[in-house]
Design a protein that fits this description.
There is one protein chain. The chain is of the alpha/beta class. It has a single domain, classed as HUPs (Rossmann fold). The chain has 12 helices and 5 strands. The chain has a 5-stranded parallel β-sheet, with helices on both faces. α4 links the parallel β2 and β3. α9 packs antiparallel against α10. The protein is globular and about 55 Å long. The N and C termini lie far apart (71 Å).
Length: 243
């Protein structure tokens, strides 16, 4: 199995900031909490030179909204371009249903890959680290009937990549800023924030952002409970009246 770095996200869209994270080589290694639970020590120099598999969380058409305006078909075009233009750094791009570590571990294994490090930004680091620490347990107990055993190296850990927005333009790039550049019709800024070759998709991406619906509002649990009690009360009153 080929050892690879992994980088996970929804990528709406995949920016130069994401590319910088996916191709990151200046590895610091696991923090103390992870270090104490590793089965082997990572060889950071060796891992740094490995290519990256991007794990792209799916956005089906019925989940499209203003925060996630690009469905899987649209993103496939961008990912195909990235694989062509960055083939020396990017090994593969795989669609996944969610960030569930056992689920994507199983996918990696089926594709012949073994994850050596999980690259992520500070905003997701703690959550991803809590998953990675449990990898030996997940492998042993086959959680959720997922066959992810041997999908990770014994030194697998999560590398936190801190953003240096005040010093580095690329680190300041976000999906939100890219989507705003599309709404503003600013092709120059869009091109500056995106991987090479993406300028040809400006009009298509702009149309998707402009036509995306607002996110559906989730009802609060309190509201659902209240509505349930009202329905129950009405049912009881109707039953009494019927008698």
């Amino acid at each position: 199995m080929k050892q690879v770095k992994v980088c996970l996200g929804r990528f709406q869209p995949f920016t130069l900031g994401h590319l910088k994270m996916a191709t990151y080589k200046d590895l610091k290694g696991p923090d103390k909490e992870q270090q104490d639970k590793l089965r082997e020590q990572p060889d950071l120099k060796e891992i740094a030179e490995q290519k990256t598999v991007i794990l792209a969380v799916s956005t089906p058409e019925d989940k499209v909204d203003t925060r996630h305006p690009f469905n899987d078909d649209v993103m496939k075009d961008e990912f195909d371009l990235i694989k062509r233009n960055y083939k020396d750094e990017i090994e593969d791009i795989l669609p996944i249903a969610s960030a569930d570590i056992c689920a994507w571990g199983e996918i990696l294994k089926k594709k012949g890959y073994k994850a050596s490090v999980w690259l992520t930004g500070s905003d997701e680091f703690k959550m991803y680290k809590s998953m990675a620490i449990k990898v030996p347990e997940y492998e042993e107990h086959n959680r959720d009937n997922r066959d992810c055993k041997d999908a990770y190296t014994k030194s697998f850990y999560v590398e936190e990549i801190e953003r240096t927005e005040d010093k580095d333009f690329v680190s300041s790039i976000s999906g939100t800023k890219v989507r705003q550049s599309l709404l503003d019709g600013d092709k120059e800024l869009f091109t500056k924030m995106m991987p090479k070759g993406m300028e040809k998709y400006f009009d298509e991406f702009k149309e998707k952002v402009e036509n995306a619906p607002e996110p559906k509002k989730k009802e609060s649990k309190k509201k659902k409970v209240k509505e349930g009690l009202i329905s129950l009360k009405n049912y009881i009153l109707e039953s009494i009246c019927a008698d």
